[in-house]
Design brief:
Helix content: 40-55%
Number of strands: 4
Number of helices: 14
Largest sheet: 2 strands, antiparallel
Radius of gyration: 24 Å
Strand content: 5-15%
Distance between the termini: 35 Å
Structural class: mainly alpha
Number of domains: 2
Order of helices and strands: HHHHHHHHEEHEEHHHHH
Length: about 280
């Protein structure tokens, strides 16, 4: 979570990137130039409404403003670039096998549902811990996010050729369903407890959904909504999430830190003051 000082610095940097003078920026957000000046040197806080106005001016979310991403991408231009990760092939293989062990026997869990489970596992992990479980990229298609074919398909082929996986097709409620059958157990030692907890949570939340239900649900998630069709979905857009997709309330965190900063600035309260307030 960001401190008031860092938030002030971030807003000033964004204002400069947009080439707004303090006067122009003040007019856009309904404050005086003096108030903007005080804000940028960390001597003035912001209300929730003011944060919303600033986010609208810069075309970013309130969550992005309140995210402490020091030593990471913290400018407007960098935020719009996709975060690059190296795919961990062993983790992808074992995440798939682990999912299949836990819920692969459910009649609704075909390839479509599996794709969405993998998406939520990686994007939830990135939102919470700054790193996806598998590191694979996802592409926005009409029916929701799917793993990028040129990264995903060779790994699936290796799993089939090595006798770890079999894929079958069957009729399911009048539709052709592609199902994955695990032929080997996952190597759970390759997944951390944190990663297994995320996978288990996603399975618990979404594995009973039909293909249509989970497609409709994922269409409401910010990373999918903000991505152009047939493009790689930007991991950074998890910070634009709102409930029920988000895992953190950045507004509440900001208000708590702001209150803490104010208390620090007040200094020590004398015994006389304490007695006065207790007697009210």
């Amino acid at each position: 979570m960001i401190s008031q000082k860092k938030l002030s610095q971030k807003i000033k940097k964004l204002r400069n990137e947009f080439s707004f003078s303090q006067e122009e920026f003040a007019q856009k957000i309904g404050l005086s130039r003096v108030a903007v000046s005080q804000l940028e040197i960390g001597r003035r806080g912001l209300s929730t409404l003011e944060l919303v106005k600033i986010s609208e001016v810069f075309g970013v979310s309130v969550d992005f403003l309140l995210l402490d991403n020091e030593n990471k991408e913290n400018s407007y231009s960098a935020r719009t670039e996709s975060k690059k990760f190296t795919i961990n092939k062993d983790k992808l293989k074992n995440t798939i096998l682990y999912i299949l062990e836990k819920c692969g026997g459910k009649p609704n869990v075909g390839e479509t549902v599996l794709y969405k489970l993998l998406y939520f596992i990686d994007f939830d992990s990135y939102e919470l811990y700054g790193k996806p479980v598998t590191g694979i990229n996802y592409v926005k298609l009409q029916f929701g996010p799917v793993p990028r074919a040129k990264e995903y398909n060779p790994i699936i082929k290796l799993m089939i050729n090595s006798g770890k996986l079999k894929i079958i097709t069957q009729n399911y409620h009048g539709m052709i369903q592609k199902r994955y059958i695990a032929l080997k157990e996952s190597d759970k030692s390759l997944l951390s407890e944190q990663e297994k907890n995320i996978i288990n949570e996603i399975i618990l939340k979404y594995s009973d959904m039909s293909a249509k239900s989970i497609e409709n649900f994922v269409h409401g998630d910010a990373p999918w909504k903000q991505c152009a069709n047939q493009k790689i979905i930007n991991y950074n857009f998890v910070f634009d999430r709102i409930p029920p997709y988000s895992h953190r309330n950045y507004n509440d965190e900001f208000m708590q830190i702001s209150a803490s900063d104010i208390i620090k600035n007040l200094g020590t309260i004398s015994k006389e003051e304490v007695n006065y307030y207790e007697s009210l």
